Structure formats: C-alpha cells, structure tokens
C-alpha cells in the first residue's frame, strides 16, 4: 500500500482552481503532478481541485476525461485503485466561459471555493490572464487568494508590463506566482546546494578560475500541435528570456543571506541587471538564430518548420538560438556565458557546463593545457546528475594523461522517489513559498535584455540560418564558441 501521511503545517486546506482544465498542460503536467502529491500524502485531506473549462461536461463526464487522458501521463509505480478513486473524489468540474464575467457565478457558488485557501492556476493563453483576474475580482473571489501565471507572460516588455500592471491592480505581488518549471527541477535545487552548501566550489566560482559557462536546453520535438502559437513566439521569447536567463542568474548569483524568497530573488535580479546589453554589431557577432529544415530524428523523417501545421508560409520565426552573454560585475567580468536552445536537435538535453581554466603551466604535456579538461557538468534532463571531469595518469609507462570523471547520479544515490518539477512548484504554491517563482522585476530585467535582439531581427531582411532536423543546429553556433577557443560538449574529439 502507498504510504500516507497526516496533514502538517505545510498542508493547509485549499481549493485549487484550474483554468484550462481540459488543455494539454492540465493533461500532461498539472493533474499528474497533483496526483503524485496526493499519492505521496502531501495534500491536505480536505483540499479540492476545481477544473474549469468551456467544454460542455458535468463532473462525472470530466472524471471520465481524466481517466482517459490524464492517467496515461502519470509516471512511477502502478496506480493503486483506492488511491486513484480517492484522488478523483477531490475533483469537481465547473463549466464557464473564462472571457465572460457573468458566468463566474457558477464558480463562486461552488462549495469547494468557499473554504480554505483559493489558488487560481491560469493554464490558458496570456490573452485571458487579465480578463480572468478581473472576472474573479468582480465575483469577489480574490481576497486572500493566490494566482499562478503560466509563461509566456506577454509578447515583449510592453505587453508583459501591461499584464503585470493589470494583474497587480487586483492581486498583491506576494499573491502572484509566475511559474517557470525549470526552477522546480531537482538538479536546479542541487545547484544551489552545490554552491552554497559546500566550501569546495565557492573559491573557484569566479573569473579567476572559470573560463566559460555553457547552458543548453535542447529538444528533439518540433512544434507539435503548437505551430500557430510558436510561430508568433519563437525560441527567444519561449525559452531564452525565461528558462535560460533564470538558469544563468542562479549560476552567477552571489550567496543570498538566506533561502527566503526575496533574498534569493534579490540576488538573481542583480545578475540580470548586470548583463551586458547586446546591441548593434554585437548582435550579428554574438547571436545565432536558426530554423530547422527537413531531416531525421531517430531514423524517422520529419518535416521542415515551414511545413508544420499553423506555421506561416515563409516564416522567419527562429526555432534555434545560440548567443554569448556577459555579466558585468567583479565576479564574472570577462567570462563568456554561452546559451543555446532549439527544437528538432540531435538529442533531448538540458545541462549547465562550467569550464574551468587549464593549468597556467604544465610539466605533464599539452593535454593538461587543453580547454575543458576540468569541467563541472550539471545535467537537468533527461537523467539528473552532476559530473566533475578531471585528468589522471593513464596506466602504463610514461605520463600520458586521460580524462576521468566523478559522477553523482541522483536516481542511484537517493533511493526514495524523486519529486517532479511541477509537483514541487504546486506544493510551494499551496504552502505559500515564493522562492522558486519569478518576481516582476526579474521578469522585466529579462525582457529588457532580450528586447534589442528581437527588435534587431524584426528590422533585418536576413532569415534564420537553416539546420537539418536531427543535428545540433547551424554551423554558426559552433563558430561562435570556436572564436573563444572552446566548443559545445558533443563536438569534442
């Protein structure tokens, strides 16, 4: 039987109201994460889930939809019938049109929303964020509630500010949870533990010892069924201005005074504000944008981006970005941060690579002077791990050096079940913990940094550089690193 726990101080009663309750995000991520928390005994027994959508269903019909569409996405051990039934007992369904305030009476009058902490999760398009918040206010449902906003929060700095201004008129900043699921990943949490829980790395975590840092978030998937959305967004907005810049800020931040939400976010903000602007000729020199053409993924032919459903003919939307960033402060001055993300690449990988400088002089031959010989690799997906690469003597005569590594594979070292990112973040929302959520000023700083690049692309006649699906992107991304005497990890000999 699954072990259950009693409710503690971090398990308050709640009403989790999920807008977009029949959408892809609810099906693949949110409801499976809530089930995992329920299965592990981490939800209050009297906590309820209120799914909201326009689909003409009653609660019974919605539960049948959950069985058919959500259950296949639940990972882990086989699901016990009794645990599944008790999870379904938490769920009620409310049909309403999110854009029509007069329909919110059905939500207000639902018994589940009248007691406990109300949490409104907006798993919808950003165009609905403000109408939903205003309708909730009109229905008297906002006092003491929390609101969770999914990315993308706007299309640019102006639209992001417009949404934040409107939502901020209804909810206080400490009621607003801007979610970035990468911040909930176990390996990102371990990056904080690695840096601030050990004395070993802190003396080395600076420009004197670090030669460069690489952050990669690569996907094998294309745009799938999101062609129309993605064609209006692109990799810079979808990935760089949130996920990758958040990872960069965690890597480069100064030690916070504590792990309190604002202490952590203050330090991240300082990094984002210290990013050197990329302007004019620097954009052509240090930013690569690409778009995938037809190719093969795992021996299966896939179409080009411009042939995807929903994509405009002749679209110049980027599906790949590689760029060099610099943090202008005493710790990181002169250290390049290389960011890379793309769709239809050769592998599904998210990782951070810290390349330490080679020894200043080697009595052991040229191998010891090779860039990247000493390297820390923090893998976020698919298998979370930390690897420290070094050089050692190869057995036998002479002094031939060979690369070796020390590995920490979390799934092997820790035997207990690992918590998925969405599960951790949803529990933090329920428990009122803001540290892993993006504050408004962080978001504004990220938008300000990417804005000149996006604006430059809009005025240029050049198209994104082509790359075949199933490769690691345009050759220009490799040339970007070659100019700094380094390369992406998969390009090493």
Automatic annotation (TrEMBL):
It comes from the Bacteria. Its EC number is 1.1.1.49. It catalyses: D-glucose 6-phosphate + NADP(+) = 6-phospho-D-glucono-1,5-lactone + NADPH + H(+). One of its GO terms (molecular function) is NADP binding. It is an enzyme of class 1 (oxidoreductase). Substrate binds at residues 181, 185, 219, 238, 343. NADP(+) binds at residue 151. GO terms for biological process: glucose metabolic process; pentose-phosphate shunt, oxidative branch. This is Glucose-6-phosphate 1-dehydrogenase. It comes from Paraburkholderia sacchari.
């Amino acid at each position: 039987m699954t072990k259950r726990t009693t409710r503690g101080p971090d398990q308050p009663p709640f009403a989790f109201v999920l807008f977009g309750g029949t959408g892809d995000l609810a099906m693949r991520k949110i409801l499976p994460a809530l089930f995992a928390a329920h299965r592990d005994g981490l939800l209050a027994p009297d906590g309820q889930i209120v799914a909201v959508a326009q689909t003409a269903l009653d609660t019974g019909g919605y539960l049948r939809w959950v069985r058919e569409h959500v259950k296949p996405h639940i990972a882990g051990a086989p699901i016990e019938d009794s645990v599944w039934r008790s999870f379904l007992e938490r769920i009620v369904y409310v049909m309403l049109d999110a854009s029509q305030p007069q329909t919110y009476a059905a939500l207000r009058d639902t018994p589940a929303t009248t007691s406990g902490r109300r949490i409104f999760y907006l798993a919808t398009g950003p165009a609905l964020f403000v109408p939903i918040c205003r309708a909730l206010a009109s229905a008297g449902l906002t006092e003491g509630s929390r609101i969770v906003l999914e990315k993308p929060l706007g299309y640019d700095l102006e639209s992001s500010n417009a949404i934040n201004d409107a939502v901020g008129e209804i909810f206080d900043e400490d009621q607003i949870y801007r979610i970035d699921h990468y911040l909930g990943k176990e390996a990102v949490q371990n990056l904080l533990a690695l840096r601030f829980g050990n004395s070993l790395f802190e003396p080395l975590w600076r420009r004197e010892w670090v030669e460069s840092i690489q952050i990669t978030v690569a996907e094998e998937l294309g745009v799938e069924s999101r062609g129309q959305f993605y064609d209006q967004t692109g990799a810079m907005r979808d990935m760089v201005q949130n996920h990758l810049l958040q990872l960069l800020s965690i890597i480069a931040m100064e030690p916070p005074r504590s792990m309190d939400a604002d202490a952590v976010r203050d330090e991240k903000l300082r990094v984002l504000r210290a990013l050197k602007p990329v302007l004019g000729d620097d954009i052509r020199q240090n930013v690569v944008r690409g778009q995938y053409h037809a190719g093969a993924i795992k021996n299966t032919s896939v179409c080009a981006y411009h042939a995807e459903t929903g994509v405009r003919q002749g679209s110049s939307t980027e599906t790949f970005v590689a760029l060099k960033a610099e943090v202008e402060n005493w710790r990181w001055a002169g250290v390049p941060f290389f960011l890379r993300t793309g769709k239809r690449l050769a592998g599904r990988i998210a990782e951070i690579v810290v390349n330490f400088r080679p020894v200043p002089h080697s009595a052991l031959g040229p191998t010891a002077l090779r860039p990247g010989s000493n390297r820390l690799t923090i893998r976020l997906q698919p298998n979370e791990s930390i690897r420290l690469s070094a050089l050692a003597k190869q057995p036998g005569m002479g002094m031939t050096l060979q690369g070796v590594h020390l590995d920490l594979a979390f799934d092997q070292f820790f035997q207990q079940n690992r918590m998925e990112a969405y599960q951790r973040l949803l529990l933090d929302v329920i428990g009122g913990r803001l540290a892993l959520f993006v504050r408004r000023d962080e978001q504004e700083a990220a938008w300000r940094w990417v804005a000149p690049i996006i604006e430059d692309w809009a005025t240029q006649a050049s198209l994104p550089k082509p790359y075949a699906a199933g490769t690691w992107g345009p050759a220009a991304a490799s040339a970007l690193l070659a100019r700094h005497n380094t390369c992406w990890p998969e390009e090493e000999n």
